[in-house]
Structures
1.
Amino acid sequence: MEGNLYLFNNEALWDLIKEQHGNHGGVYKIIAVEDGKRKPINRFLGTDTDGILYIGKANTFIDRVIDLKKSIAPEYKGTAHICGRRYKANPNIAKLFPYGLLHIELTQSAMPVELEKKLLREYIYKFGEVPPLNAV
């Protein structure tokens, strides 16, 4: 299941999301992409070659992604999203996964809560833990 992948620091991010997703929501994943490839992440039970840093849900992508981008972007001081607070709380995370490499993948769903739970369960089953910026 793969959605649309967008670079966080793309100036046209809002327009792209609004144009392609309107007021729809679903599940989003934060992924680091380096040199055109997803950056692997070592996990407890193996390597996540998809490079998933976070899995979340949104009733509408545009509102949630705005909060998320503001909480992660270095120039913003916003803390409206827990993922951004975790990202900024540990400088080693930003060093290993710089803001310029971060992408967001959006997958529309009429039932985002259920899809998020399913994806997190699958991730935990495969790697023995949640993605690095998620919490249980």
2.
Amino acid sequence: MEIITDNVRKIMKDKQKIEKALSIKISAKGRKLQIEGEQIGEFISLQFFEAIDAGFSVRIALLLANQEYLFERLSIKNFTKRENLTYIRARLIGKHGQTRELLEELSGCFIKIHDNYVYIIGRAEDIKNAMNSVAKIIQGSKQSSVYAYLEKQRKIQHDDDLGLKIK
């Protein structure tokens, strides 16, 4: 399988760690990466490389090797009819990145905004809340209302936990 990326240096720097975690072999020629491995390794590596292109660090993108973690991509255009997507991206990022950071903290997910997409890496149970929160902000909800929603969801998850989850 062949992948074209602008992040070849970043990937080749951690090549051994990536190959071991994803059970693949990587070779590079220019902007092209040649990936060899089993189908599941290649599938996860596609998500991994998309996460790297979205701006996630190698360390965070490698979480995708763990089956508990998922990678989601939301198109901002799917949630709004507005033409000015710069305004919506600004709302998602917030002043000095505070909105995005709070969304990450309250949802337990990692979030990147790149072009007209929002990328999310997190555990399956957390991804849903993060996606709902992002959609609410895109659609115009106040950030404070979204934070309250996330805090409520987090409280519900911890109450349902019955002390069985490892913290």
3.
Amino acid sequence: MLQYYAFYKPYQTLCQFSPEGDKQTLAHWLPLLDKDIYPIGRLDYDSEGLLLLSNDKKLNHQLLTPSHKHPRTYYAQVEGAITPQAIHQLCNGVSINIDGKAYTTQKAVASILQTAPNLPPRNPPIRQRLSVPDSWLSLTLIEGKNRQVRRMTAAVGFPTLRLVRYSIMHINIGNMQPGECISLPPKVIQKLWN
């Protein structure tokens, strides 16, 4: 039977079930999932937020094939007061380094968030520097290069301090807490195909 889950991946958790040193993995949070359930895509060890898990290989292919261009929205807390010019650059594509080669990102949807998004506190919390402001932005991408959001914000002069994937298409973390996993009904997944 096909199963679908939305998981709020906590900070400093690897997107895998197999052990790696003393780092927390998905197995720490989800020990009771069937052995044929795997993450669809990935989130870096130091990123948080929505991770889909399933045993549906077709869905895995659908969401990870770049030509399907599924939007993914991230909330990024960045160092410094981000400027409209930086947002404009993010929207129009910036040059980042991928595997030692220059790559220009595809157009994105970016905006400054006037207030911090309603997210659970991070554990451990972000280091506060009273002399350096920070700000939040929303960034929606249709591609998923390695550490892309972090590379993009750094390229425009605002390094990422905290990164949370809020949504993949219409599925979002809502009021979920880090480590929380919910089963998704097939009708929610069906919308990913349309």
